[in-house]
Amino acid sequence: MWRNATGLLTRGSLPRRLPSRWASGVVAGEHLPLQRRDRPGFAPDSLTAFLCVGRAYHRTVSASLTRMWLPVVAWAALIFAFSSIPNLGTDLGTWDFVLRKIAHVAEYAVLGVLLVRATRHVGISFALGVLYAASDEYHQTFVRGRHGSPIDVAIDAVGLAIGIALWQRTRPRLAA
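^ thats the sequence. predicted structure below, dont judge the formating
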C-alpha cells in the first residue's frame, strides 16, 4: 500500500516545489498531506494521493467559480429585475429616452467587465453578453408596457464592448 516517495507517486525525484494546484508550495523533503509521519520516506499509494488531490482541487475550483461567477449571476439578475418593471418612464420627454439608453450602456458595461473577469476571454465574454442582451429583450416582450428591440441589443453590445475595453486597459494580458 505505501510506496517510496520517489516511486509511482512522483515518477522520479521530488521537485523543489510541487505545482500550486496540487499542493500549496510543499518543499522537497517535507511531508506530503497523507504521508505517514512514522515512515518519512514513504507516501500513500497513488489512488489515495489522487483522491486527496482531487478534493483539494475541487475546493479551489468551486471557490474560484463562486468568487468569479456569483457577481455575474447577481448582476444578470438585477438586469432581469429592471426588465420586469412595466414602465420605467420619467416623463422627461427626449431626456427620458437618452437616459434609458445611457442606462443600457452602463449596465451592460458592468456586465462586460464581470464576464471578462470570469471567463478571462474577450470573445467568449462578448458572445455571452450579447446572448444575454438578446434574451433580455426577448423577456421584455412578455412584460406589459415593454417591448423588445434589436436596437437595444446593439446598444447593449456597445456597452459590453466598452466594459471589456476598460477591463483590457487595466488587465492587458487576456486572450483575444
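Residues 67-170 form one domain.
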